[in-house]
Design goal:
501 residues, alpha+beta, 12 strands, binds protoporphyrin IX containing FE
Length: 501
């Protein structure tokens, strides 16, 4: 009897898996690994631990084409080669949607709030207004960088101190970023900083738990799993009085009231209308923007410090460049614009160590599907990414791509005889292309990259001018931490710092 029950259960389970497998999309697209039914399931687990080599294998076997990799619950279609990557980056939101993809992968409507995708006005506030205010706000940013490093490093005298890099940079970045988002003293409040750092982790983990639920149960049970409401409640405790005061001042004295602070809260209120003009909605936008800004920038800067201490010969020329620019032009945005070597070092570090082997997460939302120029048709509902790392290591685009060359881009910029003005701007840290995707590419490229570049360049210039640095273990770059398709810098590794006298 037991054997019959067991056999029936096995047949039932196999039939369900077989039906799901048969229904899975894009069966004609080449697969990394075998495309058999069991592989579809075990492959999802394999991708969790071996995503970078699986994407690399796909790009080697199917260069310039689309291939698919198994995720736990669906296939992911990975696009390789600059022609097809350009087509993904250029596709309009109504055909290949970034918002719908984030909704599916991170349950954004439940974990963050549906208003973010229904009315993403913050995107232009960050891309245009924040960027336009960078030069004016630079003294504040620099002031915060100064104190944030001093207080978090807590160095005494001329002694070396080993500092755990990622958590330290997370604090410094959260603080300097929030100097421009919400201003002092909130940007230094440890409880507020903990909230904005933890929000991203909560969304990342809880969305995956919600994804385990059957689709119909997600809107019902998801809100109990999400920490969204709790985070907004905590954010309200810190920010509601400030936001309500600003709304009242604006209602009474007009949009340009005397003493209006120059920060993200004010810039958001310039556009927010109706329900969006309430403290809780502004708090949600601030949390969301922090989510996009802090972990990305602190991971990038941690990689930069691993690269710098692993190649210490770069410290002297970077220091010389920064000191010279600051001596001539002071701590200003104009001085930063002069720092081509610092810009190049950051860009090279991003090229070799961005956040994973794939980027440009999209979902096909056109009912007719999406047809690439090579004829490949991806059906409605397909989840798509672009193979960024293989593109950034393409020997046809980068000379000796496996070798870290910190001045790769500044050398090219300074070769004035051969470089056009377009050639110069295409080699700056903020420039995106199908061969350089750390900030995405084209119309959905990161709107905060102008701010990120200013912040990270100022941090690196400040560090090399004021500190000596050395690796925890000479000649050993700490290995990355890999979580599926997300690659982070080593979370435990340390770097030695000493205050320069
Ligand atoms: C080194 C730091 C950063 C990196 C590497 C980075 C990278 C990215 C990438 C890859 C995307 C997605 C592009 C796409 O899907 O096509 C993105 C989107 C975005 N980034 Fe950044 N970013 C950084 C810093 C920032 C900062 C400082 C801000 C805010 C001031 C910011 C705000 C955003 C926003 C709002 C989006 C759009 C999110 C959405 O609505 O989908 N980012 N970023």
């Amino acid at each position: 009897m037991d054997a019959i029950l067991f056999l029936s259960a096995l047949v039932g389970l196999t039939s369900v898996l077989w039906l799901r497998y048969k229904r899975s999309q894009g069966n004609s697209i080449p697969t990394v690994g075998s495309s058999g039914i069991w592989d579809y399931y075990t492959g999802g687990f394999r991708f969790l631990i071996r995503a970078p080599p699986m994407v690399k294998e796909g790009c080697t076997r199917y260069p310039g084409r689309v291939f698919r990799v198994p995720r736990l619950f669906n296939w992911e279609f990975v696009v390789s080669g600059s022609t097809l990557i350009d087509e993904v980056a250029s596709a309009p939101e109504g055909i290949m949607s970034s918002i719908a993809a984030k909704q599916e992968m991170f349950q954004a409507d439940i974990t963050i709030g549906p208003e973010i995708s229904q009315n993403p006005y913050h995107f232009e506030t960050i891309r245009v207004t924040l960027t336009r205010n960078l030069a004016k706000c630079f003294p504040d940013l620099h002031d915060e960088i100064n104190y944030a490093f001093d207080e978090t490093f807590c160095l005494h005298g001329a002694d070396w101190k080993l500092v755990p890099v990622l958590p330290t940079m997370m604090t410094v970045v959260a603080r300097t970023t929030n100097r421009l988002f919400v201003g002092p003293p909130i940007c230094r409040d440890p409880d507020y900083l903990k909230l904005v750092v933890q929000f991203t982790i909560d969304v990342a983990i809880r969305s995956q738990i919600i994804n385990l639920l059957p689709t119909r149960l997600r809107p019902i049970l998801g809100p109990f799993i999400s920490s969204g409401n709790e985070s907004i409640r905590k954010g309200m405790k810190h920010l509601a009085p400030l936001i309500e005061y600003r709304i009242a001042q604006e209602d009474e004295l007009g949009p340009d009231w005397p003493g209006k602070p120059n920060d993200l809260i004010s810039w958001l209120l310039e556009t927010a209308e109706g329900q969006e003009r309430t403290a809780s909605r502004i708090v949600m936008r601030i949390l969301f923007t922090n989510m996009a800004a802090i972990h990305t920038a602190s991971a990038t800067f941690t990689h930069v410090l691993f690269d710098l201490t692993n190649h210490p010969d770069y410290i002297a020329p970077l220091r010389e460049e920064a000191e010279q620019a600051v001596q001539e032009l002071g701590w200003t945005q104009v001085a930063l614009n002069r720092m081509h070597k610092i810009d190049s070092f950051l860009r090279e570090s991003q090229r070799m160590h961005d956040n994973g082997p794939v980027t440009l997460l999209r979902k096909v939302v056109d009912p007719a599907g999406f047809r690439f120029s090579d004829g490949t048709l991806l059906p409605f509902g397909s989840i798509i990414t672009a193979a960024s790392r293989p593109a950034q290591f393409d020997p046809a685009k980068y000379e000796d791509p496996e070798t870290f060359d910190g001045f790769r881009f500044s050398k090219a910029r300074e070769d004035r005889d051969r470089t056009t003005s377009e050639g110069v701007s295409s080699r700056q840290m903020i420039a995106t292309s199908a061969d350089h995707l750390p900030f995405g590419h084209k119309h959905r490229a990161c709107p905060g990259r102008f701010f990120a570049a200013t912040e990270l360049k100022a941090m690196l210039a400040h560090l090399v001018i004021n500190y000596d640095l050395r690796a925890e273990m000479e000649g050993v770059r700490p290995p990355d931490d890999v979580f599926g398709p997300i690659v982070l810098p080593n979370r435990k590794a340390k770097v030695g710092f000493k205050k320069r006298q």
